Amino acid sequence: MSTPDASGSISQADLIRLLEVARAWLDSPPGQMLLAAERQVMRDTLPTCFGQHLVQYGLAPGLLDEERVVLRNHWQVDLINGSQAIPVEEGHWPFAPQSLDVVVLHHGLDFCLAPRTLLREACQAVRAGGHMLIFGFNPWSAWGLSHFAGRDWFSEAGFVSPSRLIDWLELLGFVVEKRVDGCYRPPLRSQRWLDRLQRLERLSGRHRIPGGGFYFLVARRQMLGATPSRERSMAFPALNLPPLVAGSRRAQKRNSR
After folding, report:
1. Structural domain containing residue 40
2. What is the 3-state secondary structure (H, E, C) of the chain?
3. What's the number of domains the chain is made of?
4. Does 205 map to a domain?
5. What pTM, to 2 d.p., does this model score?
6. Residue 247 located in a structural domain
7. Per-residue pLDDT reduced to its tens digit, 82-124
């Protein structure tokens, strides 16, 4: 499978093809390494989140299958119309404002047309005191070298820097409570070499070095000193989902702006 041409612009159709390529890559040794590390992070984090309604969006639709019992209601929203996912446009989610307790963006900002638009849409659905759980690829890592060197689908993924993302979250009324880094080994295709570098993973994780291939942010929506009144309406104000419309963006490294 090939990725869209990095020299042109990316349309909605190109973005969906890019997402399909990246999802196929998840079956490779580095992809399985990534999923295993991120699932462990979720197992450690979700029990600290409270509420009933959770929505997941992003790269791996099955990321939270093992954690369905943590919150009562769990929905998946996706750019691709699947059997278990609600198809959405990244800038128009079918949830009422402040109706969700937890939103998980699993590399959603790395695979979108407009990261700030997607983040704003996701954040406005989170209630006061609720959580945003965000996974992102770290541009300042061995994985970021593949991004800047133009290797495979890595060159077209967003790789939004964690410092920039923290600034965006603060502007949207969130405070970042925790950051976790993981996957310090480079995304090598050889399982043998990944096994040989396990010591690097253990040492880097033990000392919490901020240079992993992915970062994970736990952000809470600030309550501004008041106890919010919970909306009595349904999380879905309407089931007339907006159509997927074409969009475009320039294919450029977002951290170069």
Report:
1. 9-223
2. CCCCCCCCEEEHHHHHHHHHHHHHHCCCHHHHHHHHHHHHHHHHHHHHCCCCEEEEEECCCCCCHHHCCCCCEEEEEECCCCCCCEECECCECCCCCCCEEEEEEECHHHCCCCHHHHHHHHHHCEEEEEEEEEEEECCCCHHHHHHHCCCHHHHCCCCCCHHHHHHHHHHCCEEEEEEEEECCCCCCCCHHHHHHCHHHHHHHHHCCCCCCCEEEEEEEECCCCCCCCCCCCCCCCCCCCCCCCCCEEECCCHHHC
3. 1
4. yes
5. 0.82
6. no
7. 767 888 999 999 999 999 999 999 999 999 999 999 999 999 9
